[in-house]
Amino acid sequence: MRLSRSFVPTLKETPAEAQIVSHRLMLRAGLVRQTAAGIYAWLPAGFRVLQNIAAIVRAEQDAAGAQELLMPTIQPAELWRESGRYDDYGKEMLRLNDRHERDLVYGPTNEEMITDLFRQSVKSYRELPQIVYHIQWKFRDEVRPRFGVMRGREFLMKDAYSFDLDYEGAVVSYRRMMLAYMRTFRRMGLKAIPMQAESGPIGGNMSHEFIILAPTGESEVFYDAAFEEIDYSASGFDIFSPEDLARFVGLMTTHYAATDEKHEPGTWEKLAPERQRRGRGIEVGHIFYFGTKYSAAMGFTVAGADGRPVAPEMGSYGIGVSRLVGAVIEASHDEAGIIWPDAVAPFRAAILNLRQGDGTCDRLCEEIYAKLGLAALYDDREERAGVKFADADLMGHPWQIIVGPRGAAAGTVELKRRAGGERQELSLDSALARVL
Ligand code: P5A
Predict the structure, then answer these.
(1) pTM
(2) How many domains does the chain have?
(3) pLDDT in tens, 217-232
C-alpha cells in the first residue's frame, strides 16, 4: 500500500480515553476506531492483523482435525429457552425482535445452535466423534466495556464444539484442543499458560483459561516458575495420539497455575518461595468440558452401538481473536510503538523514502515496492524523515527499508529491524533477501 493514499490515520497525540498501552497504540497506529461503546471498526492495517491472527487460529484448528463452518450471528430465542439459558444469561445478552415480533438474540456464544444443528442430522454413534468451529462476531452487552478491543461488546471469537460418545472420548477432544491452543499462541509469539478456571455461564466441571502474562491484565494469577522454562513449541506430540495428548496435558498441568478465582493459597505456599510467581494476565482462550448439559437439555441423542439412545458428551473451546490483537501488543512494544511479531504484522516492511520527489530515491523505492507488493507499506508522503521514522516505529513493521539520496545513488539501502533496532547498510538484493 502507498501510505499517501491509505486510510491509516495515525495520531501524534495520545488519546485521553485509552488507559492501557495496547489501546493507545491501536488508536495511534490507525488500526481501529470506536464507533459506539465497546464496538470498533477495523481499519485497513488493523484488519490485516486481525486476518493474520484468524489465519493462524484456523490453521491450527484444521491441523487438529476440527472442521470449519459458519453459523449466523442472529439466533432464535427458542433455542435458548430450550437450554434454560434465555433467562440465566441476563442483561449481557442482546435481545431483538423482528417484524413478526419473534424473539431473537445476537449470539454471545453458540452451544445451543450447534447442538440444534447436530440434533437435526447426526443420528448414529458411527458419526462421532466430531469437532467443528467457526470464527464469528459475538455480542455481549458488558457492563464495563474497556481497554479497547480487549473487553469489547462486539468481538471476534473462534469457538469450537466437540461431540463424543463417552467421557473418555470427550477428554481426548479436550486435550487435543489444549495442544492446538498452545501451538496457536506460540505462533503469534505469545507464551500462554493454561490455568484451571471457573466455567461460569458456559457450565461444566473441567475448564482451563489460557493466560498471557502482562501487567495490565484483568486477572491476578499465581504460577510456578517452571512455566518460564517450558518448551512452548509443543513439538514432538502427535495431536491424533491419545497417549501423546495425555503426556502433553500432564506436562502442562503438573505445575501450579491458577487465576485468583481458583487460587488455593494452601497448595501454593507449599512451593519453594523462589518458585512462586505472581502477576497479572490476559485471558486469550478458554476451554470447557460440560458433558451432556446441552445435549440432554435439548433432547439430542444418537443411537449407540447397542441401539439405545446416548446423549453425546460435549465441550466448547474459545479463542478471543480480536482480543489477541491487543494482547500481542501488550506483550510486544516499546516507548516508540508496536513491535509486531513477523507472523501477525500487517506489513512485513515499510519503505521509507527520505527524499520524496528526488528522481533516484523515487525510482529505487518504486523498484522495491514493485518487488514486495502488498507485503510492503510504501511511505511516499511529502513528510520530513523524522516523521516517517516515528510513524514506522509506531506502526511496528518488522523491517524498515530506508532509502536516502546518498545510498540510492550507490544502489544501497539501510535495513532496520524493528525488534532490537539494528541497522545495516546493504545492497538492494541482500536487503530484499532478508525481508522476504
Ligand atoms: C467457549 C467457546 C465461551 O464463550 N463458548 C464457545 C465458550 N467462552 S468465553 O470464555 O466466554 O469466551 C472465549 C474467549 O473469548 C474472549 N472474550 C472476549 N474478547 C473480547 N471482548 C470480550 N468482551 C470478550 N469476552 C470473551 C476471551 O479471550 C475468552 O477467552
Answers:
(1) 0.96
(2) 2
(3) 888 999 999 988 887 7
